Amino acid sequence: MLRHAIAPTRRYTKASHDVVRHQCLNSDAKILLLYVQGLSEADVTARSLGEHAARLGIKGRAYQRAKQLLTESGYLHAWRWQGERGRWVTEQLLANVTLTGEEAGRARVGDGPPPTTHTPTVGGPGTREPGGSYPEEQREKNLPHPPPEDPEPAADTELAEAERVLLSLRHVNRDLLLGVREARVLAGTAAEWLRRGISAGDLRKALTAGLPSGGVRSAVGFVRHRLVQKLPDRAGPTPSLAEVAAARPGLVTCAGPGAEHVFRPLAEETRCGRCRAEGATSTTANDRHPQPLPWRDRLAGAGA
Asked: What is the model's pLDDT at position 186?
């Protein structure tokens, strides 16, 4: 492979190799991060992150996926609170280095040094100051806030279906956005609903109906509370017709055609009223339109 590169003298953005070569970020996440870092302060605050992504053509699921990857990697942090008039406000911080929640909080309020304050000497060894970026080979070993281990993927049908339902809640209401790890943690309780005869659609409806008017502050806590508090009773096996007849004295099994069913006789009937009515209708139709005699009998009658 050949390469020809000319360093730009203006209108460029410095991109860290940690971002460009990051294995957990897709191309949309990297482009969005570099695009925002190259904007002026006024342009950044004038629009939300979603609006910046739309200007790049990153919309819908692609934007949600890029935002999720940036959040999980420590580049994107968000705070949500309720304003004076009751409206919910979301503030986002997009950094070009990975930050812990504490470091992001300090950068948000301007308390303490900025995330990167050192300038490494070109070609010489340097030391990392607090808030700087890790080399790629050390990132996996020395994360400042290592994420918890992923739960095992869903093994049976109910767990897999429950996990899909939980991840689909975001399409009904954006306040119910759950990550993959969060959905796998809650999938065990949600799968119990499916084992008790509740369909996936009814489960989704139970989790999204009647949401608080002020919004959901914690999607994980809200969904967990509903899964536990609204868990339906375990349905018993469906009784057979014989058990139904035994439990309700006076019911007998109909001897008529069709599927097996029971009825309550008035006297000594062996067939229900519907079967008797259908039998009487067919008999009347046969009497009204008698079947023709075979041709041999008709010839014999004509000769006589």
From this structure: 92
